[in-house]
Design goal:
- This protein has 272 residues and is of the alpha+beta class.
- It has two domains: 38-173, Jelly Rolls, CATH 2.60.120; 202-272, no CATH class.
- The protein has four helices and 14 strands.
- A six-stranded mixed sheet has the order 6-5-2-9-4-7. It has a four-stranded antiparallel sheet with strand order 1-10-3-8, with no helix packed on it. Strands 13-12-11-14 form a four-stranded mixed sheet.
- The longest helix has 27 residues, at 7-33.
- The protein is rod-shaped and about 105 Å long.
Amino acid sequence: MARSATPRKRWGAAVALVGLLLCVPGIALMVVLGPDSQITTGPHSISTRDAVAVTSPKLITWRGINVTVLAELPAQKPVFIGLGRQRDTHDYVGSLQRVELTSTDEDWTSHTRKGKDEYLPAAPTAVDWWLDSAAGIGAARIELTLPDEPVQFVVTSMGSSNLSGLQVRVGYGVAGGFAGGAGMTLIGVGLVVWGWLLWTGRRLARRLRSRDVPGPDDGSDDRTDGVAVSSVVYVYEDDYGVEHEVDEEQARELGLLDGDVEIVDDDPGDPR
C-alpha cells in the first residue's frame, strides 16, 4: 500500500513553492528595471518648429519618483532643459508660442499654443528659480526626484535655432528596485533549495520486529525451546531512496532522531 507524503515532504513542497513565488517577481524586477533601477521610455519625437516645448500643467502628477529626462537635438544644436514650479514656468513661457505635451501614453500627444511674444523674457541659463536644469550641445540631461508640488518641464533651444527634430527619453526610477529584486530572487532560490532538501532528506522509521532466541535448557533433550522476543530497529531512507537498517545508537550518531520518526509495526499480530 502506497504511503502518503510525510510531514517533512509536505513542508518541503510548501517551502519550495514559496521560494518559486518569490523568484518570479524578483527576476521580473531585475529584468524590467535593470542595474540602474529605471524603466526607460523613448526616444519620443516631438514635432515642432517652435523654440519652446513644455509639459502641460496637469501632466506631472507623480510625487517622490526619481526621473531622468534627456532632450536631444540633431546637428549639434544647443538645447536647454529645466524643471520649475508651475507658477514660475507659466510666467516664463506663458506668453510665447510653444508646443505643449499633454500625454505621455504610448504615443505622446502635443499641440501648439499661441502666444503674443516672440522671445523669452530672459535666457534660460540666467534664471535662478529652476529646481534643476542643464544645457548642452546636441543633448541636455537632468536627473532628480519629483517634489511634492505641481511642476513643469521646459525644453528650449538656444540662440537662433529651434526645436526641430527634438527627441526626448524619460527614465522612471524605483529606488533600490534592482537590489530588492535581486534580494527576493536570492531568498527564493534559498527556499527552493531548502524545500528540495526537505523533500529528498532522510526519512527514519522505527520498526518493531519479532525474532526467536534460544530458551533455557531444561535438560530433557539436546534441543532448546525458542522464545519469541521483540526488538526495535531503525530504518532510514537516504537521498537515493535506498533503505539502511541501524540500531538506536547509530541513528543517534547520524542525527536521525532529531526529526519526526515514523513508527511501523512489522508484526501486526503483536498486541504491543
